[in-house]
Design goal:
Distance between the termini: 9 Å
Order of helices and strands: HEHEEHHEEHEEHHEE
Structural class: alpha+beta
Radius of gyration: 17 Å
């Protein structure tokens, strides 16, 4: 399964070339890998970008999240009211100032846009599962999710599966998963590790499910 890997410095160009969906909310997931040497500086710059972007007109959500299983992997998780709002954000001064710097620190960037539009041709299934916990239940949920991640990565048809934790609020998390097709997802949902672990996670925190279809990149 091929994935779109782009240089971080090209993020703005990718956004500007995306299909226009002026009236549809847009979700961007930007998966980023950095070296351990660049990690602290990358977080510092991204948190500046988060703070500025949350003030942009038309922004619904913007956060930096860190993988709970790999400290060199991050997810920039953002939602915009419309393509117009995203375009203005991409033309902002803080975007121009910060994104080239974070791009220079990253080793790879995988950017995916979800606009509520059915893709043409082949697609994969993306599930974003926002999870909110309390300070008391946080560590228990992380351990349960790590076990779920490890088992789910072995499931047939799985492309990606990880837990990301917000750098802004450690009680906010996201289970991030991608599946080859619906049949693979259905088998996963019936698996022993899923039926055992997910109810425990739900007892300790809130767990939502957002499902999208993403086109398969050539």
């Amino acid at each position: 399964m091929k994935r779109l890997i782009i240089a971080a410095i090209a993020l703005a160009a990718l956004v500007s070339c995306a299909p226009k969906q002026n009236n549809a909310p847009l979700r961007l997931n930007c998966l980023v890998s950095v070296s351990m040497d660049n990690r602290d500086r990358y977080i510092e710059l991204c948190m500046q970008h988060v703070a500025a972007s949350l003030e942009d007109e038309g922004n619904i959500a913007f956060d930096l999240m860190e993988s709970a299983t790999d400290s060199t992997k991050f997810l920039i998780f953002e939602t915009w009211e419309s393509q117009d709002a995203l375009d203005k954000h991409s033309a902002s001064q803080h975007f121009a100032d910060i994104v080239p710097q974070t791009g220079a620190l990253a080793t790879t960037v995988l950017q995916q846009m979800q606009a509520g539009v059915e893709p043409e041709g082949d697609f994969v299934l993306r599930l974003n599962c926002p999870t909110t916990v309390t300070e008391e239940t946080r560590e228990a949920v992380i351990e349960l999710c790590k076990e779920l991640v490890a088992s789910s990565l072995q499931d047939e048809g799985n492309i990606a599966y990880d837990l990301f934790i917000s750098c802004s609020d450690p009680c906010k998390m996201l289970i991030f998963e991608t599946w080859k097709d619906q049949a693979s997802l259905d088998k996963h949902s019936a698996a022993e590790h899923f039926t055992r672990l997910v109810p425990q996670i739900q007892e300790l925190g809130t767990l939502e499910v957002e499902s999208f279809k993403l086109p398969v990149s050539e």
